[in-house]
Structure formats: structure tokens, C-alpha cells
Amino acid sequence: MIAHEDPRRRWYTRAEAAAEAGVSVRTVQRWVLDGRLAERHGHVNAAELFEVERERRAARTCPSPGCAA
Question: CB within 8 A of 68, min separation 6: which ones?
């Protein structure tokens, strides 16, 4: 896959997004259904995907509510 210089302008299919985030396609589908990711014509924005993935990693490393991420 060719990396786009500006992630705000890069759009992934659900399968590409799943591969980039290291999750299943079903997880990406849940993120879309939950409103965590916007989808346009069957594609999700790379910048939003990176943000959701960053939040997911932060939650995994900082499980307690008072923990500073």
C-alpha cells in the first residue's frame, strides 16, 4: 500500500483500515456504527483512523479514569 503524505486526504476501505490499525474488519465496522469513524462511500479517513487507534492505545495503557495519558 502506498502511504499518502497527508493522512487527512487519504481514505481507506474497511479492509485497508483494519490492516493499518491491526484490528479486524468487524472492529472497523463497529467503530463506524458507534460513530467513532465517519465513512464516505465505503471508505474511512486515515486521520480519523489514526486518532481512534491512538485513543485505543491510550485506553489500553491507562486503564484507570484518573490516569494521565
Answer: 62
How far is C-alpha 16 from the geometric centre of its chain's CA atoms?
11
Q: How would you write the pLDDT of the chain (69 residues) with one tens digit per residue?
A: 445 567 678 899 999 999 988 899 999 999 999 999 999 998 999 999 999 988 888 887 766 666 654
DSSP string over 12-34: EEHHHHHHHHTS-HHHHHHHHHT
Q: Which of 18, 12, 2, 10 is nearest to 43 (CA)?
A: 12
C-alpha cell at 35: 460513530
| Beta bridge partner(s), residue 40 | 43
* Side-chain half-sphere CA neighbours of 69 within 13 A: 12
- CA–CA separation, 7 vs 67, rounded Å? 29
